[in-house]
């Protein structure tokens, strides 16, 4: 059994998608051991408690990042976490955090990285005028939205789209992509070659799936 640790700051919709995928058996031999938030009022923490999951609030206000991260690392280790999943966690991780879980922290970002990293990726895509954007699940390293890409899903930008409508369609694909990426990583059936995630079964390069 593999143990997941979820970090979130807000509503936790990707956390719920992961939890539902575990319940369906889509993510096999895994559970969510701990859900951690840096905000006590986060709706995702309330949702985790409602599901009977272990939760912890580690406030960020007035604390140095390294100090907060050390407390989170200790909590994750106490719960035997194998894979850390950032699900709308709005705080950069310290180098010490990344070093504690090398190639074992995943994040999901609402663009086809390396395009439009950072905040407001959907607005960036609209301002740039791209025809296609999407979402990316990637390993976390010490640089922002930079780690090895595990899986991407493409989302067309439609005429008349605004940030709200585009964000909603990307989020639908996030809820599909994140559980699939977690399942792939937990299987261990891959290798990383020159920043490329390569499945050992198919020897395919990182998959970009066109959303239907």
Question: Would you give an account of this structure?
Answer:
- It is a single chain.
- By secondary structure, the chain is an alpha/beta fold.
- It folds into two domains: 1-102, 3-Layer(aba) Sandwich (Rossmann fold); 107-212, Formyl transferase, N-terminal domain (Rossmann fold), CATH 3.40.50.
- The protein is 34% helix and 26% strand.
- The chain contains six helices and ten strands; from the N terminus they run E-H-E-H-E-H-E-H-E-H-E-E-H-E-E-E.
- An eight-stranded mixed sheet has the order 3-2-1-4-5-6-7-10, sandwiched between helices. It has a two-stranded antiparallel ribbon with strand order 8-9.
- Strand 4 (83-86), helix 4 (95-100) and strand 5 form a beta-alpha-beta unit.
- The longest helix has 25 residues, at 163-187.
- It starts with a strand and ends with a strand.
- The model is unreliable at 203-207 (pLDDT under 50).
């Amino acid at each position: 059994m593999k143990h997941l640790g979820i970090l979130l700051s807000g509503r936790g919709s990707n956390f719920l998608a992961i939890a539902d995928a575990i319940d369906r058996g889509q993510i096999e031999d895994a559970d969510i051991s701990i859900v951690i938030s840096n905000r006590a009022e986060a709706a995702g923490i309330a949702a985790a408690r409602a599901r009977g999951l272990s939760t912890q609030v580690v406030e960020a206000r007035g604390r140095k990042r390294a100090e907060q991260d050390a407390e989170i690392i200790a909590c994750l280790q106490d719960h035997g976490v194998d894979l850390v999943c950032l699900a709308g966690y709005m705080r950069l991780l310290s180098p010490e955090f990344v070093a504690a879980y090398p190639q074992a922290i995943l994040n999901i970002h609402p663009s086809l990285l390396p395009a439009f990293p950072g905040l407001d990726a959907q607005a960036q895509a609209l301002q740039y005028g791209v025809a296609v954007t999407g979402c990316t699940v990637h390993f976390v390293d010490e640089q922002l939205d930079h780690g090895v890409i595990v899986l991407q899903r493409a989302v067309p930008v439609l005429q008349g789209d605004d940030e709200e409508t585009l964000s909603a369609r990307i989020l639908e694909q996030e809820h599909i992509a994140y559980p699939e990426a977690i399942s792939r990583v937990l299987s261990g059936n891959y290798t990383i070659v020159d920043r490329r995630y390569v499945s050992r079964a198919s020897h395919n390069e990182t998959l970009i799936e066109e959303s239907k």
